[in-house]
Write a structure and sequence with these properties.
The structure holds 2 protein chains of 2 kinds. Chain A is mainly α. Chain A contains 14 helices and no strands. By secondary structure, chain B is an all-alpha fold. The chains are: A mainly alpha, B mainly alpha. Chains A and B meet through helix 1, helix 2, helix 3, helix 4 and helix 5 of A and helix 1, helix 2, helix 3, helix 5 and helix 6 of B.
């Protein structure tokens, strides 16, 4: 954290007059905090796992860094590529894709020669000729070669498996971690979840939901496990119950997975949920905007502003 | 659906996400480009209903790779680990005011933190947050007006 620069205007000097000592104390206290860049990446879960966990632990205990993250979310950046940049980037991707294709074609030759199998060589040579022939007809900066058509499928918004996290209240146990009754009771469920054994995870979370009906962790992962097990409709109820708890740490996750579960089970409120998330500034805003656009496009109805 | 259609449909969402991870425009363009290159390679096997989540996952993974690279180069893991959570109460009444003043929105707090604690210029704050310099100036003026009142009360 750098020292303040001597560029304050008169209004700033006047307002901060007499507070220099306190500011210096705050600077000293937070000089080793994670950088803005690191906090931003952590907020998008885009750090290597070990560092992500370190920053998450720091955030749990640092109101200052949490305020920085909240501020970044609240700053309302609406970053867009303008039309020229969008075209330029497409051309770049096209060029690089073509170059990669040519490189992989060239790399096939040595293996052919070393193989020494005439038939294989003949077949692969035919492939090579076919590929190089395609390359020669593509002029630089032209549109992409025709891509393989993808069969149309009913739209189902995709989702990723969320990592396991525990709320501060779940971690408030003062004794040994292994003796924390809540963590101990949930271990079989989380073990199954980690091992991608979703039917078992669903069964375990269902059982724990009767013991801990007000636990955000149980309700959220019960819902997500059902989604991962293919029961999108069954995920809605526990996720709605999780939403009613109003847990700030899980709020974004719950809203996103509830919207996805609603959409995938063809509930009419799904699009509104995506639009609400899209208007917010949470971690899923970009994905929610894209999902809302995708649903609007499929329904040929413009998204409400 | 052809690649270009998918690109046009999803590029803004992917770029916006990349910018939310890194405020460096050129890096965000690189991440976006890599995601669509991966899509180009896997086009035949990708179900369009998996987009844009699939693309966002590629961006996230590439960003992690960049961080890993940076960690190795800077030996972050040894020298620059995130500080342990400070368990101490606010260092001063000013810190308490910044964190808890009901009149401040999160974005006001952020501007105050970056300007007067991190020592950034308004232009640097604008670049880091995606706001204009005028917006940053406005947020700071508002926060300072509240601070003056609060400071006056404390001094009285």
């Amino acid at each position: 954290m750098s020292q303040p620069r001597d560029d304050w205007d008169a209004e700033e000097r006047d307002a901060l007059d007499g507070l220099e000592g306190e500011l210096a104390e705050i600077r000293r206290k937070h000089q080793d905090d994670p950088s803005l860049e690191m906090l931003r990446a952590a907020d998008a879960d885009a750090l290597p796992p070990e560092l992500q966990a370190q920053v998450a632990r720091h955030l749990q205990g640092s109101a200052w860094s949490r305020a920085v993250v909240d501020g970044l979310r609240d700053s309302g950046a609406d970053d867009r590529l303008d039309a020229a940049s969008e075209d330029r980037l497409l051309q770049r991707i096209t060029r690089e894709a073509r170059a990669a294709s040519r490189t992989s074609s060239r790399l096939l030759w040595p293996s052919l020669a070393m193989g020494g199998v005439a038939l294989a060589a003949t077949i692969l040579m035919a492939v090579m000729v076919s590929r190089s022939g395609r390359d020669t007809v593509v002029v630089p900066d032209s549109p992409l070669p025709p891509a393989a058509a993808i069969p149309a499928a009913p739209i189902k918004i995709a989702f990723n498996k969320p990592g396991i996290k525990l709320s501060p209240s779940a971690l408030a146990w003062r004794g040994e971690a292994s003796a924390n009754p809540f963590v101990r009771d949930l271990t079989p469920a989380f073990d199954a979840y980690r091992a991608d054994d979703y039917p078992k995870a669903v069964a375990e979370f269902d059982r724990q939901a009767t013991v801990y009906p007000g636990s955000i962790e149980v309700l959220f992962y019960q819902g997500v496990s059902r989604m991962l097990a293919g029961d999108d409709a069954g995920a809605v109820a526990p996720l709605e119950a999780a939403a009613r708890l109003g847990n700030a740490m899980f709020a974004d996750d719950v809203s996103w997975y509830l919207a996805v579960a609603a959409q995938r089970s063809a509930r009419p409120d799904a699009r509104v949920r995506f639009e609400q998330l899209c208007r917010g500034k949470g971690a899923y805003a970009a994905a929610a905007c894209a999902a809302a656009d995708q649903l609007s496009a499929s329904a040929a109805v413009p998204r409400q502003p | 659906m052809e690649f270009e259609s998918l690109y046009r449909q999803h590029v803004q969402a992917v770029f916006r996400f990349a910018m939310s991870i890194t405020r460096r425009r050129e890096i965000a363009e690189d991440l976006t480009s890599e995601a669509f290159l991966a899509l180009h390679r896997e086009l035949a096997s990708i179900d369009p209903s998996q987009l844009p989540a699939w693309l966002l996952t590629v961006v996230r993974n590439r960003a992690r790779d960049l961080w890993r690279h940076q960690l190795v180069e800077e030996r972050y893991a040894v020298d620059k680990q995130p500080a342990a959570p400070p368990t101490a109460p606010p260092a001063s009444s000013l810190e308490e005011w910044i964190l808890e003043s009901a009149g401040l929105k999160p974005v006001h707090r952020l501007c105050v933190m970056l300007r007067y604690v991190s020592g950034m210029t308004r232009a640097e704050i604008a670049a880091e947050t995606g706001m204009s310099e005028m917006q940053v100036k406005g947020h700071l003026q508002y926060a300072l007006s509240l601070l003056r009142k609060a400071h006056g009360v404390r001094q009285a």
